[in-house]
């Protein structure tokens, strides 16, 4: 049975005061059962790690360079993130695919770099509204996943995948349970073609306007192994309620 994972993506939000208030609150009230992570801006990794101390809350980053350490101004390597205590790193978020023209091939290289450094990449995929309306959701997601799945079974088995429909991100319009379940089942089937172990072990998160009210029904679906949470991760009460929805009863 896969342990559910709830990962908060702070995006470009927060200040040191937010780390100092929100992280200890999370640490003191984490439910037993699900794994919980916060993916914070690079500059707050150190503060966040200190606030976590030895608690079960996991640390994550929001991006990583596909390159090894070297002359790459402004980039952050997987080795650096690992040294800061990161367990997770988000790669291929649609905001980066769109704003920074990240190709699926480059996203796969970032995932490989994270894995080489001993971290778990959270690989994001998802279709735009136009792609969904024109019936291309499955094709788009298959194409986004292809270079990642081509990394081979031994690496794929160590991934987390997040299905995040672009039209649901930050809009308040979550995918319905049925819409999410259909895509998650497709992703699980694609993993099965890589290896039986990948299909069994890889966690597939749903992200896109997850709220305390919508999380329980989403997390009740077999193929939905938790969530990647944006806006609601900035509010301790909302985020903890979502974490509680991931407790398997
Ligand atoms: O990475 C998180 C997603 O982009 C979801 O963001 P949201 O929960 O604010 O819609």
UniProtKB/TrEMBL annotation:
Q: Which Gene3D superfamilies match?
A: Aldolase class I
Give the active-site positions.
93, 164
Report the source organism.
Denitromonas iodatirespirans
Asked if the record carries the keyword Glycosyltransferase, the reply is no
The record's Gene Ontology cellular component field reads: cytosol
Q: What's the protein name? A: Triosephosphate isomerase
Q: Which GO terms describe its biological process?
A: gluconeogenesis; glyceraldehyde-3-phosphate biosynthetic process; glycerol catabolic process; glycolytic process
Q: Does the entry feature the keyword Cell inner membrane, yes or no?
A: no
EC no. given is: 5.3.1.1
């Amino acid at each position: 049975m896969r342990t559910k994972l709830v990962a908060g993506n702070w995006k470009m939000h927060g200040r040191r005061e937010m780390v100092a208030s929100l992280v200890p609150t999370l640490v003191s009230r984490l439910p037993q059962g699900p794994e919980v992570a916060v993916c914070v801006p690079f500059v707050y990794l150190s503060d966040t790690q200190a606030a976590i101390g030895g608690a079960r809350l996991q640390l994550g980053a929001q991006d990583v360079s596909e390159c090894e350490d070297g002359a790459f101004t402004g980039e952050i390597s997987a080795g650096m993130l690992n040294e800061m205590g990161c367990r997770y790193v988000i790669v291929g978020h649609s905001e980066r695919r769109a704003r920074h023209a990240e190709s699926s091939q480059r996203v796969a290289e970032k995932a490989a770099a994270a894995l080489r450094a001993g971290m778990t990449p959270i690989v994001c995929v998802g279709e735009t509204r136009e792609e969904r309306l024109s019936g291309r959701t499955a094709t788009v997601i298959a194409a986004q996943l292809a270079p990642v799945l081509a990394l081979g079974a031994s690496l794929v088995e160590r991934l987390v995948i997040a299905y995040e429909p672009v039209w649901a991100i930050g809009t308040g319009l979550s995918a319905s349970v049925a819409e999410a379940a259909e895509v998650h089942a497709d992703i699980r089937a694609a993993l099965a073609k890589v290896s039986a172990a990948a299909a069994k072990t890889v966690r597939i998160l749903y992200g896109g306007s997850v709220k305390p009210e919508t999380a329980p029904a989403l997390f009740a679906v077999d193929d939905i192994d938790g969530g990647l949470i944006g806006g609601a991760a900035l509010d301790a009460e909302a985020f903890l309620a979502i974490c509680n929805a991931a407790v398997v009863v």
